[in-house]
């Protein structure tokens, strides 16, 4: 007589069905996790945008930058590997920042007259530095450039985007200027040596700046503060911080040989 299947055997689904169910459950769990990462880190997009808006053409760029940063966040959530020894916030920050800077690069444009004015100011800066043996003050630089101090700051602010993008292209690891975490790929020996050399040059150039200029740059880049937050730390207005930042970044770019 043929034995009957046990009730348990009849209720157990085939292996293929169980496998599909497990994959579906895993996919659903991953989708929910990605959604949580995205929702939890949307403020990070706003923070990065707030930091770089000073380099944008105006408020018209705001939506484009937020959109680019959000796309970067979504891509980070979809590609993040939790098994790696890095927090999602760290990974997402790099992706968001990269997407926003790419958007700035696509829309980067400095009028030719600004290029000419910057070249004149840079030539004056180099001549004064060579003559006195030290970097000139903003007041002296404006006077010798035959422009008002307000005009000097305005020109440096107009050209700041190019300097900003050059600085952000220098490194992907932690540095005195920009406290970033290591990238999500392992560079080769040649890339490591080149990056190390660039960081040494960057550090030397930074240390040659005045204490005030270093302070402004380190608060903005290393401490990751916005212009508004930096202004609160220094006890000045946000517009004044913008002027100081543009001046300091210009001087650093000249020292690094990265002019417009």
What does this structure look like?
- The structure is a single chain.
- This protein is mainly α and 260 residues long.
- The chain has two domains: 15-106, RNA polymerase sigma factor, region 2, helix turn helix motif (Rna Polymerase Sigma Factor, Chain: A); 112-255, Orthogonal Bundle (Arc Repressor Mutant, subunit A), CATH 1.10.10.
- Helices cover 70% and strands 0% of the residues.
- It is built from 13 helices and no strands.
- It has helices at residues 7-11, 15-40, 42-52, 62-79, 88-106, 112-132, 138-144, 149-158, 160-168, 189-207, 211-222, 227-234, 238-255.
- The longest helix is centred in the N-terminal third of the chain and has 26 residues, at 15-40.
- The N and C termini lie far apart (93 Å).
What attributes characterize this protein structure?
260 residues; mainly alpha; Rna Polymerase Sigma Factor, Chain: A; Arc Repressor Mutant, subunit A; 70% helix
Task: Please specify the SSE layout and strand pairing.
Layout: H1 7-11, H2 15-40, H3 42-52, H4 62-79, H5 88-106, H6 112-132, H7 138-144, H8 149-158, H9 160-168, H10 189-207, H11 211-222, H12 227-234, H13 238-255
Distance between the termini: 93 Å
Helix content: over 70%
CATH superfamily of the largest domain: Winged helix-like DNA-binding domain superfamily/Winged helix DNA-binding domain
Oligomeric description of these chains: single chain
Q: Number of DSSP strands?
A: 0
Which structural category do the helix and sheet elements fall into? Answer: mainly alpha
From the alpha carbons, calculate the radius of gyration and give it in angstroms: 26 Å
| N-to-C series of helices and strands | HHHHHHHHHHHHH
Taken as a percent bin, the fraction of beta residues is: under 5%
Q: What is the name of the CATH architecture of the largest domain?
A: Orthogonal Bundle
């Amino acid at each position: 007589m043929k034995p009957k299947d046990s009730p348990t055997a009849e209720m157990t689904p085939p292996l293929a069905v169980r496998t599909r169910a497990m994959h579906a459950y895993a996919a659903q769990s991953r989708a929910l996790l990605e959604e949580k990462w995205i929702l939890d880190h949307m403020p990070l997009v706003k923070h990065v945008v707030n930091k770089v808006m000073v380099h944008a053409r105006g408020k018209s760029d705001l939506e484009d930058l937020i959109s680019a940063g959000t796309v970067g966040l979504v891509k980070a959530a979809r590609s993040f590997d939790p098994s790696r020894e890095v927090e999602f916030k760290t990974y997402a920050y790099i992706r968001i920042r990269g997407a926003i800077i790419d958007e700035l690069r696509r829309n980067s444009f400095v009028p030719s007259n600004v290029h000419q004015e910057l070249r004149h100011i840079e030539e004056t800066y180099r001549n004064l530095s060579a003559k006195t043996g030290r970097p000139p003050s903003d007041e002296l630089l404006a006077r010798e450039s035959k422009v008002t101090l307000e005009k000097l700051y305005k020109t440096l602010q107009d050209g700041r985007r190019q300097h900003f993008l050059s600085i952000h292209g220098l490194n992907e690891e932690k540095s005195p200027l920009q406290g970033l975490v290591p990238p999500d790929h392992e560079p080769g020996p040649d890339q490591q040596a080149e990056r190390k050399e660039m960081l040494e040059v960057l550090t030397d150039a930074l240390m040659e700046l005045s204490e005030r200029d270093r302070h402004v740059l380190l608060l903005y880049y290393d401490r990751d503060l916005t212009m508004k937050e930096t202004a609160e730390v220094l006890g000045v207005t946000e517009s004044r911080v913008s002027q100081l930042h543009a001046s300091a970044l210009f001087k650093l770019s000249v020292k690094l040989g990265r002019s417009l």
